[in-house]
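Supplementary Methods, section 5.1.

A reviewer requested that the exact input to the structure prediction be made available. We therefore reproduce it here, unchanged from the version used in the analyses.
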Amino acid sequence: MTSPATPATDWFSSPAEALSRLGEQGYLGGAATGTTAYLAGALGKPLLVEGPAGVGKTELAKAVAASTGASLVRLQCYEGLDEARALYEWNYKKQLLRIQAVGNDTAWEQTHDDIFTEEFLLTRPLLAAIRADEPTVMLIDEVDKTDFEVEGLLLEVLSDFQVTIPELGTVAATRRPFVVLTSNATRELSEAVKRRCLYLHLDYPDEQREREILLARVPELPKQLAAEVVAVIARLRELDLKKSPSIAESVDWARTLLALEIGTLDPASIERTLGVVLKHASDQDRAARELKLHRVP
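The structure derived from this sequence is encoded token-by-token as follows.
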């Protein structure tokens, strides 16, 4: 099953072109984003994107896929994720049915060779991305939520872009995927994983960039209202909250204000719609005190 790897696809021709094409998809990044996106494609190296939740890490992978016409294969990481869910597993029920069907007269060696074939292989995201013939973006989302053991599984994939299946052999990528790993930095990733990756840190945008994002995502939003939304969001992010508002929540808030035909963010309007951006009662109480809102029981 081993096949020779081909050179990495030319995903973008330059950092400037990467930034422009991402922008066409509504992803407004900075110079570092354009440079690392270009290099990840040109060098065929995975890109580790780290930063707080809601700053556009996952959206970057989606924008790369959309801007290049590639398919997106996503592995959502979580505590307890194992090889069977990330890479592959065997269809044991189907194998058992085959064993029962052939009966006891067939030698085990023949039965073994029969049931460990492609017909019985259940492909999971990592293997699917490795085997893809068409351009593919492999998104390994929130890798910091997995156990350290899972990082060992990733090393073979990220080092050689190949996967070893003991019963079938080694599957090597014929076309290297564009790999994006995201991390909220809830734990430190191993140096072995980091060595194999380019690195990009994303933080909340400044107010000017966030206004540009809002107006790109919600073009019917009045510029003055966009400025008011961004100013309040900036104040909220300065507070000691359980969960600061993400860029996506800023966009949701803008759309909410339009839907409710609210033209200005006065205290009453903020109070009325605060649940769109703050999802914890304690955060809402803190915001109400800081913004001097009059909470309605």
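The first helix runs from residue 15 to 24. These observations are discussed further in the main text.
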